[in-house]
Amino acid sequence: MKPLSQQALQLIADRFKVLAEPMRLRLLNALRSGEHSVSELVKVTGATQANASKHLGILTECGMLGRRKEGLKVYYFIADELVLKLCELMCSSLQTQLEKKAAHFPARRLNSKSRTPSPDPLPRHRSTQ
Known about the structure:
With about 130 residues, the chain is mainly α. It has a domain at about 20-80: Orthogonal Bundle (Arc Repressor Mutant, subunit A), CATH 1.10.10. It is about 50% helix and about 10% strand. The chain has a three-stranded antiparallel sheet with strand order 1-3-2. The model is unreliable at about 120-129 (pLDDT under 50).
């Protein structure tokens, strides 16, 4: 495979920068189920109308989302399905990394009422002072 040019690397970095904003990821996640109007996306994500519109515009400008207008409403949808595959790959990678890190800790059961860890079933050594 041929090395990437500086211009290509910059384009790739710019694409990843778009995904580096949690609100944009929330919007993409909400749109996984299909197209939604701005007001529906505001309700689902908890964003303000202005904030959601700003991020939807950025996602649309870079080609990840598409939009259509119906009367006074604007509907957004995933235009580049590969962005969802990229997110799935990242989630899978994070899950694997977290599972490896979690393997270094002893299993703890949560007390269902208080949601605090149950007493450690392993005996503790007393200090000999």
